[in-house]
Amino acid sequence: MANWFAMERLADRAIDRVFSEQIRIDPQVRSGKGERPGSDATRPAFVTRGLLKIDVGTIERGNFIGRRWEGDMEADSAKIFIQLPLMPPYDLRDGDRIVAIDRPGPPAFEVSSIARYSGRAEILVTPV
Question: Is 96 left (phi over 0), alpha (psi -120 to 50) or beta?
Answer without folding.
Answer: beta
